[in-house]
Write a structure and sequence with these properties.
Blueprint lengths: L1 H26 L4 H28 L9 H20 L3 H29 L5 H23 L5 H22 L15 H6 L9 H32 L6 H30 L3 H19 L4 H28 L7 H50 L7
Helix pairs in contact: 1-2, 1-3, 1-4, 1-5, 1-6, 1-8, 2-4, 2-12, 3-4, 3-6, 4-12, 5-6, 5-9, 5-11, 8-9, 8-10, 8-11, 8-12, 9-11, 10-11, 10-12
């Protein structure tokens, strides 16, 4: 599963972090921040819809080819086709359409990949598995952005890492041990069931609700820095379109070093001590400190330090938080659906942040945006403290 996450995020994340901003800046430099917000907002909205729906449909997929495998392979193929559309686009509308298709494909694949954890990982190992997934996800940032900065063409900056990532995912999907369902689901799949793919009852499952909210808030906090770092370096620290990709690569490298410094340790200790909440809480606080450091950064050196701290916090957070969420899933029969709902908590902020960001930037600049993210992260700390069923 971590191998699959490396490939998936090599394909998906470089456009979000670097390539998309540069592509939009080529098309409409005068309104680049607002246009990027539209592109990422629409794409994240599609991700929010597709992820839980694909997860639920994969729960119901029958055949000897497996439950998750068809969605994973078809998803990355559609996603790469979308990257080709984006790379050749000459208008913001074309980029919006391409990114919507990319999010549709890659999130269908992501739903299948994430569901394999609940399908196969025993509870006492989930912290370590989640840690490995966290390292893979963040390590893919470095690999993806490293590939991006090797090229000056925005088309190659999308297509080359996309091809590498998709090849990794497909290779893994062909040999993975997938669940096979040959029986016909006893329940129907009508309008009620369709709408139920996107929701859960927080009254019946309060711990799941608070865990969902925690991930939503921390993802939103981190998204302020990852989405707008390229523009921040250009506007506030004097980087140019020619040099910014390299500096984002270095920032991502520091972020990943932070992730590696905490993720496996946090996951292992969480399993060893049988505790989740305290690790999630401390990790969220560390991430808030990192965001605040980036917001006030007067130089690249301070940005890199902030990225190191942010990585340490978010790496530990995602590792243990995924284990915590898996421990409080409402049902063992709908892993794909429930984890798809969790992925809404990761996709929705990426839709809301670009909508809110242009107004915040106009009032307080990019530092104000990052500080706003830090405040949101503090609310995430409060949310995880309300989980009762997990230590």
């Amino acid at each position: 599963m971590p191998i699959a996450m490396v490939g998936l995020f090599i394909a998906l994340l470089p456009p979000v972090i670097v390539s998309m901003a540069l592509k939009i800046n080529e098309i409409t430099p005068e309104t680049s921040a607002a246009s990027l917000g539209i592109v990422l907002g629409v794409g994240a909205l599609l991700a929010m819809i597709v992820n839980p729906l694909a997860g639920r449909l994969s729960d119901r997929t029958r055949g000897r080819f497996g439950m998750r495998r068809p969605w994973i392979i078809a998803g990355v193929l559609v996603g790469y086709l979308a990257l080709i559309v984006i790379s050749s686009a000459t208008t913001v509308t074309g980029v919006v359409a391409g990114w919507a298709l990319a999010q549709t494909g890659f999130n269908a694949a992501l739903a299948g990949v994430i569901a394999t954890m609940a399908d196969t990982a025993r509870p006492k190992y989930r912290g370590r598995v989640a840690a490995a997934v966290g390292v893979a996800q963040n390590g893919s940032l470095v690999l993806g952005v490293f590939i991006v900065q090797l090229f000056s063409s925005t088309s190659l900056q999308m297509l080359v890492p996309g091809a590498v990532g998709c090849a990794i995912v497909i290779g893994w999907a062909l040999i993975m041990k997938d669940r096979v369902r040959l029986d016909k689901p006893v329940d129907s799949f009508g309008v009620k069931e369709f709408l139920g793919s996107f929701a859960f009852n927080p009254r019946s499952n309060p711990d799941f609700g608070w865990a969902w909210l925690t991930r939503f808030l921390l993802t939103g906090a981190a998204a302020t820095a990852t989405t707008y770092l390229t523009f921040f370096l250009i506007a506030n620290l004097g980087e140019t379109a020619e040099t910014v990709a390299t500096q984002v690569f270095y920032a991502t490298l520091f972020y990943t070093v932070g992730v590696l410094s905490t993720t496996f340790v946090a996951g292992w200790l969480s399993d060893r001590l049988g505790k989740r909440k305290i690790f999630v809480l401390v990790a969220a606080l560390v991430a808030v400190v990192g965001l605040s450091t980036i917001a006030f950064a007067p130089s690249l050196a301070v940005v890199f330090a902030g990225e190191l701290i942010l990585g340490a916090g978010m790496g530990a957070f995602y590792a243990v938080d995924l284990a915590l969420i898996t421990d409080v899933l409402p049902s063992s029969e709908d892993n794909g659906k429930d984890l798809g709902v969790v992925n809404i908590a990761q996709a929705l902020p990426q839709s809301l942040v670009p909508v809110a960001a242009p107004g915040v930037i106009a009032l307080a600049g990019y530092p104000g945006l990052f500080l706003g993210g830090a405040v949101v992260g503090l609310f995430g700390v409060l949310a995880v403290s309300r989980v009762k069923g997990v230590k």
